[in-house]
Specification:
- The protein is α+β, with helices and mostly antiparallel strands.
- It has 2 domains: about 15-50; about 60-165, Enolase-like, domain 1, CATH 3.30.390.50.
- The chain is about 30% helix and about 30% strand.
- It has helices spanning about 5-10, 30-35, 110-115, 120-130, 145-165; strands at about 15-20, 25-30, 35, 40, 45-50, 60-65, 75-85, 90-100, 105.
- The strands form 3 sheets. The protein has a 4-stranded antiparallel β-sheet, sandwiched between helices. A 3-stranded antiparallel β-sheet has the order 2-1-5. Strands 3-4 form a two-stranded antiparallel sheet.
- Strand 7 and strand 8 (about 90-100) form a beta hairpin.
- The longest helix has 20 residues, at about 145-165.
- It is globular and about 50 Å long.
Length: about 170
């Protein structure tokens, strides 16, 4: 499901998905696992054996936020983000992912490029949010229009990054 939380978290965390089937075992990165709406690269008879989330540095800043019509509903849009800072206070590494903004969870590479090398600030987070429209492919459905999802994704990027700055692992 493109709006499910776990696929987005697996993507932003660069998780490994361990698969087992009639042909044996294999490991796939989350970024390669999701193929479309309700579809994956699982072969016939293959099952997910486990998920592996790499350990995080102690000082990593992270957050996840989503918007849904009602509490407990699937997300209309959600954003997962983390960033690390170097000794000078600049963002040295980061990763952002969106759910409910395309046929699969999506990495927000343009936002990550905007953030890297700069000190975190609300202005920087807003600038990163402005890049999101180019990285997502939202859809219209009975719950929300593509334009609404695009707008919400941008707002959530800025909010999620701000929240990430207020917490650490």
């Amino acid at each position: 499901d493109p709006a499910a939380e776990l696929p987005g978290i697996a993507l932003v965390c660069d998780a490994e998905i361990h698969l087992r089937g009639p042909s044996g075992a294999r490991v796939i990165k989350a970024a390669k696992f999701f193929d479309g709406v309700f579809t994956t690269i699982l072969a016939d008879g293959e099952l997910i054996e486990k998920l592996y989330f790499p350990p995080w540095p102690e000082q990593r800043r992270w957050a996840f936020q989503e918007i849904s019509r009602r509490e407990g509903d699937f997300a209309l849009v959600g954003i997962a983000a983390w960033y690390d800072m170097d000794a000078s206070g600049a963002i040295s590494d980061c990763r952002l992912a969106a759910i409910g903004a395309g046929d699969t969870p999506l990495l927000l590479d343009s936002a990550a490029r905007t953030l890297t090398g700069s000190a975190p600030s609300e202005a920087l987070f807003e600038k990163a949010a402005e890049t999101v429209a180019g990285d997502i492919a939202p859809f219209d459905d009975i719950h929300a229009s593509a334009d609404y999802r695009r707008e919400v994704a941008a707002v959530l990027v800025a909010r999620t990054l701000k929240t990430a700055g207020e917490r650490r692992r």
